[in-house]
Design brief:
Largest sheet: 7 strands, mixed
Order of helices and strands: HHHHHEHEHEHHEHEHHEE
Radius of gyration: 20 Å
Strand order of the largest sheet: 3-2-1-4-5-7-6
Shape: globular
Structural class: alpha/beta
CATH architecture of one domain: 3-Layer(aba) Sandwich
InterPro entries: SAM-dependent_MTases_sf, SAM_O-MeTrfase
Protein name: catechol O-methyltransferase
CATH superfamily of one domain: Vaccinia Virus protein VP39
Number of strands: 7
Bound molecules: S-adenosylmethionine
Subcellular location: Endoplasmic reticulum
Organism: Chanos chanos
Catalytic activity: a catechol + S-adenosyl-L-methionine = a guaiacol + S-adenosyl-L-homocysteine + H(+)
């Protein structure tokens, strides 16, 4: 048995840890515990629950309404790691400034960022969105189509990114990528960036925007972006989607061309 005196001595340290890491506890509670309980209670996936909420609360054919409803669900009901409304504004602004014609997204999940990207694209532009998880992709397909975007505007590719990137030219007729949004597993950021460099699809001025480079973090990717001499790098500071108090950031890389 631990004596009460020893337990009391540890109390300040435990309290300090709880206060210091409270936002991470909130994240664990919302992303893991609530999800597990709801999975057991409903028997359907979190992604499917999100879709059902959106289907019954948002206006079909209205991307703004789909995104607002999704944001509400993620802040008040359950957590999904969409880019979210605050970092979404950085994405919106860059898309408006650059007017890309061909966009590649790595990591579609439920299609939140795909809808966000598609609504900012100029007429005639195309988004290729890559998702390797079949069940996530099924939900994403429904959300993207519910928002009113057809296959000509958003093409969903259900395959791992490292298999898709080398085949973009041959299988999808892509000549150049104007904008790449990376939001898949962080360990894939650097290898996929190097695949993109080798593909010849990046041109001078192509933009790569990578989410979550501070939390969970992508240090090797940032190091390469900084030291390779291939990019102009800027990190946009932000906080993690739908949770206050956890610092995060997005890296914006402007490709300078191969030397
Ligand atoms: C953070 S979520 C994407 C969120 C989405 N971009 C949004 O903001 O709405 C990450 C997704 O990337 C997918 N993913 C992870 N690694 C991948 C890879 N190598 N290729 C394709 N999809 C991948 C996961 O299955 C997951 O659905």
């Amino acid at each position: 048995m631990v004596s009460p005196a020893i337990a009391l001595a540890f109390l300040p340290m435990i309290l300090t840890l709880i206060i210091r890491y409270r936002y991470y506890f909130v994240l664990f509670y919302r992303a893991v515990l609530v999800r597990w309980v709801q999975d057991c209670l409903t028997g359907i996936s979190r992604e499917e629950r999100a879709f059902q909420y959106i289907l019954t609360h948002a206006t079909p054919g209205n991307p703004d309404s789909i995104l607002d409803t999704f944001d509400y669900w993620c802040s008040k009901v359950e957590f999904i790691s969409n880019i979210g409304p605050k970092k979404g504004l950085i994405l919106d602004r860059l898309l408006k400034e650059t007017c890309p014609l061909t966009v590649l997204e790595l990591g579609t999940h439920c299609g939140y960022s795909a809808v966000r990207i598609a609504r900012s694209l100029p007429v005639g532009a195309r988004l290729y969105s890559v998702e390797m998880d079949q069940r996530n992709a099924q939900v994403a397909e429904k959300i993207i189509r519910l928002a009113g975007f057809d296959d000509d505007t958003v093409e969903l590719i259900v395959q791992p990114s490292d298999e898709v990137i080398p085949r973009l030219r041959e299988d999808y007729g892509v000549e150049r990528l104007d904008f790449v949004f990376m939001d898949h597993w962080k360990r894939c950021y650097l290898p996929d960036l190097q695949l993109l460099e080798g593909s010849g699809l990046l041109g001078e001025g192509s933009i790569i925007l990578a989410d979550n480079v501070i939390f969970p973090g992508a240090p090797n990717f940032l190091r390469h972006a900084r030291r390779s001499g291939l990019y102009e790098l800027r990190v946009h500071r932000a906080t993690l989607e739908y949770i206050r108090g956890i610092r995060d950031g997005m890296a914006e890389l402007v490709f300078l061309g191969l030397k």
